[in-house]
Amino acid sequence: MRQPFRWFCTGLALGAAATAFAAPTIYMVGDSTMADKPKPEYPERGWGQLFKELAAPPATVENHAVNGRSTKSFIDEGRWDKVYDSLTEGDWVIIQFGHNDEKEHDPKRYAHFETTYRENLTRFVRQVRSRDAEPILATSVARRRWENGELVPTHGEYPRVVREVAAAEGVPLLEMERLTSDLERAYGEEGSKGLHLWYTAEQVPSRPDGLQDDTHYNETGAREVAAIAAREISRLHLSLADWIDYTKVKAPPPAWSADLGDGTYINPILNADYSDPDVVRVGEDYYMTASSFSHVPGLPILHSTDLVNWTLVNHALQRFPEERFAAPQHGGGVWAPSIRHHDGLFYIYYGDPDAGIFAMTAEDPAGEWSGPHLVVEGQGLIDPCPLWDTDGRVWLVHAWANSRAGIHNQLTLRELTADGLSAKNDDAPVIIDGHRLPGYRTLEGAKFYQRDGWYWVFAPAGGVPMGWQSVFRARDIRGPYEDRIVLDQGRTQVNGPHQGAWVDTPGGEHWFLHFQDRGPLGRVVHLQPMVWTEQNWPVMGTDPDGNGRGEPVRRHRKPDLKFTGYAQPPASDDFEGDTLGLQWQWQANLRPQWAELREGKLRLNAVPHTATNLWPNPALLMQKASGEAFFATVPVELSPGREAVTAGLTIFGRDYAWLGLVRGQNGTQLVHAECLQADNGKPEQRKVVLEDAPDRIWLRALWNEAGERCAFAYSVDGEAYQTLDSTFQAREGRWVGAKVGIFCTAPGASQAFAEFDSFTLAPLPGAFPYLHP
């Protein structure tokens, strides 16, 4: 099995480390929608023709697709044998037929979907593998056929057969029919003509009657479809993604995706810092929230219909009402929330270890939430979760932060008023005491449920890096509670699998979502299958030895739920809208003068900053690091004039580094800075990279090996990049993963600013484990 390589790049050309594997040849085999078109004066283009531009040298593309060919005619004319004889170990073959196999009136091309077509596809796959090369099957691209305002599928049973052969042979599948149908719909009935050959006679002199072709693409369409294929190769975690230059891909793919498109997923489902996740199901919809600590906006709201593909739709907490959050409160703020739905209302409860337990409500989780309401005042009260009992009473379980309360390893029960927003009385018994349980430490993060006449408390113990998930049950809400460890690391590499949410499905399946601490990457989210034993205990993940303690799964079938599209939280932002993308957070409560969007650019106004490092700066605009390896690119331009100003791109945590423009008495310089132990007040160490730098430059951060090796690069023209010699190991913040983002500061009050055209985050080649044998 091929293993991924890791590398740093200059302008994303392959570096010396890539020589660990020979560069592959990428063969394309198919029909006219994929083929090269030799006449530049004629507007038709195949998507394989444009895919060549995306190959990262020294990888090459050989496009053998030909107009009018089916699987049958491609074989009969000897074209397949030519490809087969050329294959060597490590090559790739992308196979897309169907348009011409469908043509029953033409015996030279017709291949019945259940017999000849299936047999030919199977032959292609097996012969490619016999050469130790890698096949990829693709369904046919969609035709532009609209009826009554709806796009109509035209390929009948042929795409189904491609899917079945891919599943039977265990090969990757590019769902080009579905994805190009989505593309046509996105452009609309009239706009989608701009993807195809719709031209007047004046536009194409060789065609006096003009063109009205709904099957073939012009350059715009072919380029869009080539980008779709490239994004799918990334999303499927194929090592072929190592050889695609995602700087050239329109709308690059996310740095991580969990849905493999074949009915399975891989963990983590969210490979970013969504710490302490909790999830609630309402009908067919699932909503997740997570810890956000002092970052603003806080309490992210994510939505899914299948528990694998998640969309970031909102933040419940737009700003903290307390004045103390005008400055960063690293490690403070929102700890371990829970989200519930009761009587038509969504509730989020969270603990602020310095103030108490708060609740927020909303009718629509994607809409406006109430401000935080103080439910129980006090220091050290954390990790709250409510339960609406069947008798109408409302209860709350919570844990304790030893750093504030001097209490830990215990879970406390409180009764709430009927509205769930106040403590009913002062009675607060400890219902589960970890000090009385052998080996238990740091019992916290409880979630409260009812099932089959039992009260259930799901709670982690053992600490974040190396702990486990326990479950407690009792017939009476006050106990006594029986306990059992139901999920731990076992023989896997998933350390500390615990703290999350148990959810069910309308069809009766059970699943558990939890986090894993990945250091600089943060606390990433996993999804485990869950079953109930005959003894009425849950087991999460897989239990190969039958001891009742589950182990995390790496790859598993998806839940039996409605699929509504591939999704991951956003990362890139073109700054074209009226608001920033939902991925962005500030270090503290936002002040209106910090930022503004205008004419497709983000302007960051210089915020006065005199500290020795950026740790206390509230005006850092940052987002979560995402995935094992990515690069983030942003063009920055300083405001006109001579006022002192600094603007840059940073990878930020307790240790951090940045690359940016510094304008001072000596003019504008490109500066690289590092700061170790920023949380302890240590100063930055700066190095001038360019003495006489332009006021506009492109900055790039490269995140590799989940933050273990990071670097920076720059370009003066947006094309050729120079990577700095030094590498940097990212370090997590206080209870959060490292973040990537931008900033603009000045030594005092200033009218200076910096403008950012866009922020683009894409996979860094070498990021993906190769999953297909």
SSE blueprint:
Layout lengths: L24 E6 L16 H5 L8 E4 L7 H6 L2 H8 L5 E5 L16 H18 L3 E5 L7 E2 L2 E2 L6 H12 L3 E2 L1 H16 L4 E4 L11 E7 L1 H17 L28 E3 L11 E5 L2 E5 L8 E7 L6 E7 L17 E8 L2 E8 L3 E7 L10 E5 L3 E8 L5 E7 L1 H4 L4 E7 L13 E4 L13 E5 L2 E8 L6 E7 L7 E6 L10 E7 L5 E8 L5 E10 L5 E3 L14 E3 L37 E4 L2 E5 L1 E2 L12 E4 L5 E9 L6 E8 L3 E9 L2 E9 L9 E6 L5 E9 L4 E7 L6 E2 L15 E8 L6 E4 L3 E4 L10
Helix pairs in contact: 4-5, 6-7
Write structural notes for this entry.
By secondary structure, this protein is mainly beta. Helix content is 11%, strand content 34%. The relative contact order is 0.10.
Question: From the alpha-carbon coordinates, what is the Rg to the nearest angstrom?
Answer: 28 Å
Low-confidence stretches are 1-20, 767-773
* Shape summary: globular
- Roughly what fraction of the amino acids lie in strands? 25-35%
Give the biggest sheet.
Answer: 8 strands, antiparallel
Total helical segments: 8
Helix/strand structural class? mainly beta
Query: Kindly, what is the distance between the CA atoms of the first and last residues, rounded to a whole number of angstroms?
Result: 7 Å
Helicity, as a percent range: 10-25%
Question: On the 0-100 scale, what is the average pLDDT?
Answer: 94
List how many beta strands DSSP finds: 46
